[in-house]
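Possible regression after last week's pipeline update?

I re-ran a chain I had predicted before the update to compare outputs. Posting the input and the new output here so someone can diff against the archived version. Not blocking, just want to make sure nothing changed silently.
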Amino acid sequence: MRQGFSKVIMSLALLFFAVSCAVFAFLWRSISRNEQAAQAAESEWQTENSRREEAKSLDASMRAIQNERDQLDTHFASSVDVVPLLDTVEKLASSAGTKTSVTSVDILPNNAGLNVSLKSTGTFQSIYKFLALLENSSYELQFYSVDLESGPLTDVAGKTTGTAWTAAIKVNLVSFE
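New output (post-update):
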């Protein structure tokens, strides 16, 4: 009986060994699949993290060059919004001490440029200062003509108090988009 008993034990041991090997192989494949899924998830996370870092870097770069962009934007006048240019002309006239009005604004064909006609009155020095400020403004201007006329400056009583100068100025805004 001992021999039959040892065959049963041996058979059970072999069966247990085979089941253990099958369980081990099943667990090994499961772990291997989980490891591959974890590697894929980590790779996807690294890609997304790298995109996020690039976006942060781009945002930081955009903030760093914002002043330069603002200066560049003030150099160009847009065909849909010439108001900043006209505001600049008014500020320059005010700082030069002249009375200036815009008499016409014409957009050239194919948005090739913008013609602006101005009329400015004041002293010769203020007109000259206004022209210098216009020339050195942030906009690229090309002067077509500047016609200066002088006449007597009278007060309320009609008494001549000096010389008044009037300038008819025609410029082309070269930096126009």
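Follow-up from reviewer: compared with the archived run. The chain has a mean pLDDT of 84. Marking as no regression found.
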